[in-house]
Amino acid sequence: MKCRGFEIVSGWEARGIRLPVRKTASSAGYDLEAGADVLVPAGKMAMVPTGIKAYMNSDEVLYLFVRSSLAARHHIVLANGTGVIDADYYGNEENEGHIFIALQNGGEEDVLVRKGDRIAQGVFQAYLTVDDDRAGIGAVRQGGFGSTGRA
Predict the structure, then answer these.
(1) CA 149: distance to chain centroid?
(2) Which CATH architecture has domain 5-18+29-123?
(3) Which positions, given as ranges, span the membrane (predicted)?
(4) Separation in Å, CA 125 to CA 22, 52, 131, 139, 141
């Protein structure tokens, strides 16, 4: 039985996408790579496709963090600070759960992110809920990126 992991999004199988891996035995994060070349203009934001999706248990989340080398060398940060991939994002009908990384360029020069560049780290985490939590009773995700709570 599969608990958590990564898969390549349909239609991206022939594009040379590599599944995220941890680089050392003590690394918490799985390195996510850019699935295509994307220009992140100075002072602007760009969405970078990864070509992957993540599955996990219903009480888990995948947190995304920008790689520190992007921040230190190129003034690139995640547009939303920390990315949150919910368990029910996987397999949604809008985009199958395709993970995009929202990069913000705080520098004065455009930055070209190349396919295969390691741009983010993904950390799986179990989470807790409050007593009498009723979220999700009868609710099913109705879309992809940014769809939580959207009517």
Answers:
(1) 19
(2) Distorted Sandwich (2.70)
(3) none
(4) 15, 18, 20, 22, 20
Residues in the chain: 151
DSSP type of residue 68: H
Q: One digit per residue, pLDDT tens: the chain, 151 residues?
A: 889 999 999 999 999 999 999 999 999 999 999 999 999 999 999 999 999 999 999 999 999 999 999 999 999 999 999 999 999 999 999 999 999 999 999 999 999 999 999 999 999 999 999 998 887 666 665 665 555 555 4
**Which SS3 state, helix, strand or coil, does residue 118 take?**
strand
For the chain, give every domain's residue range: 5-18+29-123
Instruction: Using DSSP, state whether 87 is helix, strand or coil.
Output: helix
- What is the spatial distance between Cα 95 and Cα 64, in angstroms, rounded to a whole number? 18
Instruction: State if pTM tops 0.85.
Output: yes
